[in-house]
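1st attempt posting a full record on here, be nice pls
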Amino acid sequence: MRPDGSGLTKLTDVAQQLDAAFASFSPDQQRIVTFFSQGCADSPCQHFFTLHSDGTHFHRVVTGEPDTFLTDWGPGG
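the predicted structure (as tokens):
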């Protein structure tokens, strides 16, 4: 995406009932970590995923607790 918001590239095709947020690029800009949630109550419903920056290799890493939602990379990636 360009600084003016143009040039968007769709990376995934997820169900409309999922909310995606708090994506973060790896230090080398090659991968992205993000989470998806499904309007949960008391069950684990935050699904953390990594994917390559071109949208390939979409992979669930872990399912977290309902109040777990921030994702980021460590200094070493």
